[in-house]
Amino acid sequence: MVGARNIVLAAAASVLVFGSWLAAQPVFSGDEVFPPEEFAARRARVVERIGDAVAILQAATERPGEQPFRQNNQFFYLTGVAEPRAILLIDGRSKQTTIFVKPFDERREQRMFGPALHPGADAARATGVAAVLARDEFTAAVTDLARSGRTIYTPFRPEVLGEASSSDAVALARATEQDPWDGRPSREQAFNAKLKAASPRSAIKDLDPILDALRTIKSPREIAIVREATKMTGLAIMEAMRDAKPGRFEYELQADAEFVFKKFGAYGGSYFALIATGTNTWYSHYHKNTARLQDGDLVQFDYAPDYKYYQSDVTRVFPANGTFSPRQREFYTIYLELYRALMTSIKVHASPREIVKDAVVKMDRILAEFRFSDARIRTAAAAFVDRYRNSNAASLGHSVGMEVHDVGGAPATLEPGQIFTIEPAMQFPDEHVGIRLEDMILITDTGYENLSAFVPIEIEAIEKVMREPGLQKR
Question: CA 182, CA 396: separation in Å to the nearest integer?
Fold first, then answer.
């Protein structure tokens, strides 16, 4: 117990330089993440878009076994309610919102899991909606809709519950439906069919595009949470740097990150840990995490927390033994210079294509002036630049928000409130290794802010951190 206490105290000391900006999250409840007014404003924007129609969303179901509940992203975005099997009804005509939840369960609330949200005026006041009713009353609400035949908007896409993005959920649902030995429809397809059967005169339309458009631009409170998640991510990466050494396993560095995530109240990871050493760096989403670090390897570390329903995504590269070899210095340095050519070309209101065009001019100049000692590094760097030169550049990377690959698609131009990563890879096919950095970019009114700029990226800064004692030594 004494040793464990020392580890905790040492870890706390290691983050004091950042101040007290990481507040613990209400891990299983969404009622403290945003004030009710923010959710009300989001629902009002939905009402503007659906007109006389209604919007209906299902909450996630309970998790099987002893697993913590996590709400799906679309439901949480509009309510902040973290209750299983709730149903949300937004009436575009009356501009009123009703949430239907399970009734009070004395055994679950008073003897097992603690208080929950259940029907009544107190719940309505707490959530900022017109009414919170028993879930059984939803049938009567749909019957009323059936009489009028009003249009119903509801999500068509499978829900996302964390450690996933919408594209992942869609791919899984498609594979399940097309599996000749499975063939199940998604939960959303089943719900939509029931809505259609209950209200046959109603047109059923997809709500996801409306919500995706709203989620593309982050509010100040959303930005603050993503900023906190990114600070956690940086602390996790630095702890992994400190503990890296030949002979350690990739999963031991994952343990450092998960200690940091849980210490500051994250639900879990944003995605599976992408911790690759040696030739594993060739794969963009390697996640077995079972290899030993070897002397002379580079380690690529890409892992972030799921914090208050928001994500981050940062990648750093560092030497397993704590010191870059001369050759590693050369190819890391040229990569970093090319990476920064892209970074410094980012401008508000510019299109990705315009940014890439500007960056390639800088990259060509860097290639011409850089002193290469290894022809293979020159070839890899030239191929890196040519990929940008020949690309259509629909995007610079991927959006980040409630999902690590967030909704909304590639933006035509970069506008204030967008958050995305850049993560270009430079590969060495003959050696079957790659190198990839990644930073969190927030577009502002005047340009951009690199939310992960504090995470060491220069060779000297990385080596300095790696000389410090890590969690496993402390």
Answer: 38
Query: Contact, 294 vs 325, CB < 8 A?
Result: no
Q: List pLDDT tens digits, range 349-384.
A: 999 999 999 999 999 999 999 999 999 999 999 999
* Domain encompassing residue 420: 220-466
What was the pLDDT predicted at 466?
Answer: 98
Helices and strands in the chain: count of H runs, count of E runs = 15, 17
Domain-embedded: residue 300: yes
Backbone φ and ψ of 386, nearest 5°: -65, -35
Regarding whether 370 and 419 lie in a shared domain, the answer is yes
Q: Looking at the domain assignment, is residue 14 inside a domain?
A: no
State residue 474's pLDDT score. 73
Task: Give ∠ CA 449-455-460 in degrees, rounded to 5.
Answer: 120
Boundary (domain end) residue, out of 157, 185, 216: 216
Res 10: pLDDT:
41
Pseudo-torsion of CA 172, 175, 176, 178, nearest 10°?
160
Give the integer Cα–Cα distance in Å for 31 and 198: 32
Count: domains in the chain = 2
Please identify, among 149, 183, 216, the residue that sits at the C-terminal boundary of a domain.
Answer: 216
pLDDT score for 33: 79
Contacting residues for 321 by C-beta, under 8 A, at least 6 apart: 245, 246, 295, 296, 297
The CA distance from 207 to 213, in Å, is 10
- Residue at 372 is within a domain: yes
Alpha-carbon distance of 339 to 439, in angstroms, equals 10
> With a cut of 50, which residues of the chain have pLDDT below it?
1-30
Residue 22 lies inside a defined structural domain of this protein: no
Q: What is the pLDDT of residue 105?
A: 74
Type of residue found at 60: A
